[in-house]
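Reminder to self: tokens first, then the designed residues, so the page reads top to bottom the way the pipeline ran.
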């Protein structure tokens, strides 16, 4: 189809939602998908009523057109969705401006934060899978998760009467080798054994409780009604194992057990 065969006014059907715009609006950014579609180099499919059909969700397409027409940005509450559409249609000027808005900045920082925890997203998916596999008559499902920033926490004290002080990671590693700590660790009954899911270790200066709060927040964003379990029988909390090496050093388990309750109704 030659370019001159497109009318100046274009009728669009975007995923069942109809729009009317100008050919010049669609061609505004020549590197975009829309400009390519209506450049004349491609055959654009029409629906039964003669509208040019774009197989995409039309919910936010009006915001795309408003930006192309007069540079108008969408309301903040739909910025994330319009950002995805801008990326899909290859409208980089819009995507660039949206990256400067609070919702996109916040999401970018959130993704960076979560990236500090190995297999975070797989862990959340595993939590959901285990919870949904629970047999039906139950009103709720509880899944235990073990979180740990460090597998072991080391302590030392310079004098017999002084209180224990936390070791640096380097000193702890030296202590592991000196006292063959791994043998003692292997023999203790850790709370980790009760968990269906594990996440750790990580290098970020973020405590286990904070990571657990983020997991609950992400599950709620996905529509799940979740809360922290406080049932005594689950024995949630920090593993209490520790081992002293003489009177000058000791190590303790750094693993924490949390319970996630999924309320189904």
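Designed residues (265 positions):
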């Amino acid at each position: 189809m030659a370019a001159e065969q497109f009318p100046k006014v274009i009728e669009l059907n975007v995923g069942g939602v109809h729009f009317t715009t100008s050919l010049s609006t669609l061609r505004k950014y020549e590197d975009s998908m829309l400009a390519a579609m209506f450049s004349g180099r491609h055959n654009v499919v029409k629906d039964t009523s003669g509208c040019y059909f774009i197989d995409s969700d039309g919910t936010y397409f009006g915001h795309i057109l408003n930006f192309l027409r007069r540079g108008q940005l969408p309301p903040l509450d739909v910025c994330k969705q319009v950002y995805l559409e801008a990326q899909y249609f290859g409208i980089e000027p819009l995507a660039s401006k949206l990256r400067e808005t609070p919702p996109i900045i916040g999401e970018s920082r959130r993704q960076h934060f979560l990236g500090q925890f190995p297999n975070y997203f797989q862990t959340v998916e595993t939590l959901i899978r285990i919870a949904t596999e629970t047999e039906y008559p139950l009103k709720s499902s509880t899944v235990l998760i073990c979180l740990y920033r460090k597998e072991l926490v080391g302590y030392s004290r310079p004098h017999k009467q002084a209180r224990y002080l936390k070791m640096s990671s380097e000193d702890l590693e030296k202590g592991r080798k000196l006292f063959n700590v791994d043998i003692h660790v292997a023999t203790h009954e850790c709370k980790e054994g009760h968990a269906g899911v594990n996440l750790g270790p990580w290098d970020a200066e973020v405590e286990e409780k904070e990571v657990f709060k983020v997991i609950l927040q992400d599950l709620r964003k996905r529509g799940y009604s979740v809360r922290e379990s406080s049932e005594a029988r689950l024995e949630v909390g920090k593993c209490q194992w520790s081992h002293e090496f003489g009177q000058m050093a000791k190590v303790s388990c750094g693993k924490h057990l949390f319970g996630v309750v999924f309320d189904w109704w």
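The longest strand covers residues 140-147.
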